[in-house]
Amino acid sequence: MTASTLLTTRALLLDMDGTLVNSDVVVERCWRRWAGRQGLDGDAVMKVVHGRQGYASMAVLLPDRPMEQNHADNARMLAEETADMDGVVEVPGAAAFLASLAELPHALVTSADVALSTARMAAAGLGLPEVRITAESVGASKPDPEGFLKGAAELGVAPEDCLVFEDSGAGIAAGRAAGMRVVGVGPRAAEHGPDVLAADLTRVRVETAANGMIHVRIG
Predict the structure, then answer these.
(1) CA within 13 Å, CB half, 87
(2) Among candidates 104, 109, 111, 41, which has minimal Cα distance to 74?
(3) 113 carries an active-site annotation
(4) Taking phi first (over 0 means left), then psi (-120 to 50 degrees means alpha), and beta for anything else, what does residue 20 get?
(5) Across residues 197-203, what is the average pLDDT?
(6) What letters, b where the CB count within 10 A reaches 16 and e where it falls short, cover 171-185?
(7) Is 200 assigned a catalytic role?
């Protein structure tokens, strides 16, 4: 982006993978191994898995397979990913961005479970927001809006007054379905038409405004 965009909000809802944490190398390793075991094309699999819980990605990729098997595979996948932190780093600007939100209403809304989100945030050198919506918190995966709606409810803010930060198509769709504006972070987000796009979090500035509002400047 060359021009600066100013958005006003009351709360920020933050995805983790691809938005705060760059875990792409681990996701690629784990999911390409899974694809090989299933006889699926790895490139095709990688176009589906970002942003969703594992069982939901498996349901898209193997629509005739029993959901019980997807959930069992998902549990194994989560354990595998949690044990592999090699190459996990912060998205540029994430630490400073989170520090700027310390006194402001914000929440983590991730498709990872508690163990994986805790491990990845630590591996990237990032502190965990006080309010966290994880895989255990919801009954439906992104692109269902449940996670973002629960994040807004936990913060006591109306959905239309929340601003979502996301990188994936599933996440952007979830934010929109929740009635929220979406800031896309990184090149993956550019493919899915967010309301505003930031190359990374170094391009985002947050300031407290009057009457409990928050100004978010992007660009």
Answers:
(1) 11
(2) 111
(3) no
(4) alpha
(5) 97
(6) bbbbbbbbebbbbbb
(7) no
Which H/E stretch holds residue 107? strand 106-109
Residues 180, 183, 188: CA angle, nearest 5 degrees: 120
**Positive or negative, the Cα torsion across 158, 127, 28, 31?**
negative
β-strand pairing of 5-9 with 131-133: unpaired
The length of the chain in residues reads: 219
Residue pLDDT, tens place only, 51-79: 999 999 999 999 999 999 999 999 999 99
For residue 17 the two structure tokens come to 């993978």
Structure tokens at 190: 């550019």
Residue type, 18: G
Place of tokens 């691809």: 18
Number of other residues whose CB lies within 10 A of the CB of residue 139: 6
The β-bridge relationship of strands 89-90 and 21-22 is: antiparallel
Catalytic annotation, pick one of 17, 113, 161, 167: 17
Q: pTM, whole model, 2 decimals?
A: 0.94
Give how far the C-alpha of residue 188 lies from the chain's centroid of Cα atoms, to the nearest Å: 12
Cβ–Cβ under 8 Å, residues 148 and 170: no
